Task: inverse folding
């Protein structure tokens, strides 16, 4: 951690999108670009009760926990926000988020609109970004190209996508992920425009 990072509190970001909008790859690309310019931002690792998909690593992609453990965490107020998405629980650790922000690291929450609302209600300092697919047809094509979901899951994700898209106007910024590199550029610009330690924002 350099001096600039330790003097400033980290900035909290919320990024939401319908699944298939490319949010995860976009955000990873931006975090790498920020790191190349000396700005440390990290993805928050959520807790979830859903099963790991092939290739997902416990503690890296999510903390995969039982419903009983998740409910115990709710009971002790461990979550900054939590929600049910696709009949599964998802939540963000309050303590982990606070620890990184206090260390001057920016934290990116990849959460749904319900979680975004809760975080907005609890923190004035949060920057919220919504990523849109170019069209619903393109979203459906992207979802179908994922080997992991069956038809029923795809239909459910499309229904959820409509729900998510209906909330896009609640966010501070919206980006359309049509051409990937352009979307990365636009997202990076938002990060610099909202950098609390303005030195890096040249
Ligand atoms: P997936 O199961 O495809 O990884 O994620 C499904 C949805 O859950 C995505 O919209 C994702 O943003 C959302 N999600 C993931 N983690 C969290 C979380 O901690 N809180 C909330 N509210 N939503 C989350």
Result:
């Amino acid at each position: 951690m350099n001096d600039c990072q330790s003097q400033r509190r980290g900035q909290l970001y919320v990024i939401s999108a319908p699944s298939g909008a490319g949010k995860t790859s976009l955000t990873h690309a931006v975090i790498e670009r920020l790191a190349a310019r000396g700005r440390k931002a990290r993805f928050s690792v959520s807790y979830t009760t859903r099963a790991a998909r092939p290739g997902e690593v416990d503690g890296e992609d999510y903390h995969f926990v039982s419903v009983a453990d998740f409910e115990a965490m709710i009971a002790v107020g461990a979550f900054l926000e939590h929600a049910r998405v696709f009949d599964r629980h998802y939540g963000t650790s309050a303590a982990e988020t606070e620890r990184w922000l206090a260390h001057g690291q920016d934290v990116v929450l990849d959460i749904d609109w319900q979680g975004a609302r809760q975080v907005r209600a609890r923190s004035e300092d949060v920057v919220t970004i919504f990523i849109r697919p170019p069209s619903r047809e393109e979203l459906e094509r992207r979802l179908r190209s994922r080997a992991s979901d069956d038809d029923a899951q795809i239909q459910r994700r499309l229904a959820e996508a409509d729900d998510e898209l209906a909330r896009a106007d609640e966010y501070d910024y919206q980006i359309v992920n049509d051409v990937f590199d352009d979307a990365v550029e636009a997202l990076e610009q938002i990060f610099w425009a909202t950098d609390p330690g303005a030195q890096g924002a040249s």
